Amino acid sequence: MRRRAGRGRAGPGAGFRRRWLVPGVCALVLLGLTHPLRPGPAALLDSVEGRLSVATWNMCGVRQWNCEGTGTGAAKVRALERLAVTEGARVIMLQEACSGDLAAARSALGAGWNTTFVPYAVQDAAGRRTEVRCAGAGTAGLAILALSSLTGVSVVPAPQPAAGLHRGIVCATAADLAVRVCNAHLSLPGAGRDREFRGDQLASLVGAADRRTVFGGDLNSAPPGPGDRDSWIWPYAAYRTYRECDQASAASRGGRATHRTGHKVDYLFTALPRTRCSVAGTGASDHLALVMRVGIRG
To answer: If you average pLDDT over residues 64-78, what whole number do you get?
Structure first.
């Protein structure tokens, strides 16, 4: 399972023997929710043609989380530009993003691009929260970057460890495209000694979706299957009411690897019709980007 050994990305306090709180993520603060700029012609073209490309990418921007060798902030910004220009992504969900890199990417992409950002926080046993800092690049967190105005931004309540790293789930509506997106970064396996948080977090994520939602992110989980003892964490609706980007058939639960260890941990789900799924290398992270094209008309 990804990062249980080696990378150790759980952050301070993940191994504490404590009681665990359910509503921890509710304390997250939304920053830079939206910049009211008019959408560019590329977003309008996607709308007219009835197709939209959505991407998810873990940027590995927090150097102290074993990301030292994954490229500079400038390289990560260029990778975001390629996702928008080469891959045609008009909505990009980001994990382990640095607020400084996000601002630089938004500026580089130009008018019409908007962002929302939710910082990660480490909570100690006394309930004190400290935001995670990026080395020279601001605060670390979850983000949505879109060539559309972003409305209805909300943090989805989901259980988090009482002491340790709080990630989270954030949703927003790409208003110009009438599509809801929900970006999640789930806890690591075994983040709580007496509780598995990912099942409840997945239930919260799926529960926040509707028929015009694209949801996913870095779920720190393998697809459900006979060889995975953690298959029970997946809600019934994930692969049935919705379909995953790389899901080949109704019965399939597989998908191409999205992490350099050879595992699939990044996902995009939707009930909208899928017309393409691709896995794109960025050269600036230990994760590949996952890009899904969906039909948004009708």
So the answer is: 96
Closest CA to 245 of 275, 265, 225, 218: 275
Q: What's the CA gap between 155 and 185, in Å, rounded?
A: 12
CATH topology of domain 24-295: Deoxyribonuclease I; Chain A (3.60.10)
Q: What angle is formed at CA 99 by the lines to CA 139 and CA 170, rounded to 5 degrees? A: 90
Of 115, 12, 128, residue with least CA distance to 64 = 12
- For residues 239 and 253, the answer to whether their CB atoms sit within 8 Å is yes
**CB of 59 closer than 8 Å to CB of 98:** yes
Alpha-helical (H) ranges within the chain are 41-49, 73-85, 99-109, 198-207
- Tell me which amino acid residue 121 is: A
* CA atoms of 251 and 292, how far apart (whole Å): 19
- The pTM is what? 0.86
pLDDT tens readout for residues 230-279 = 999 999 999 999 999 999 999 999 999 999 999 999 999 999 999 999 99
Residue spans per domain, the chain: 24-295
Residue 271 neighbours by CB under 8 Å, 6+ apart: 209, 210, 211, 212, 213, 241, 242, 243
**Under 8 Å between Cβ of 267 and 252:** no
| Cα 51 from Cα 10, distance rounded (Å) | 37
Nearest-angstrom CA–CA distance, 1 and 216: 18
Q: Is the predicted pLDDT of residue 80 greater than 50, yes or no?
A: yes
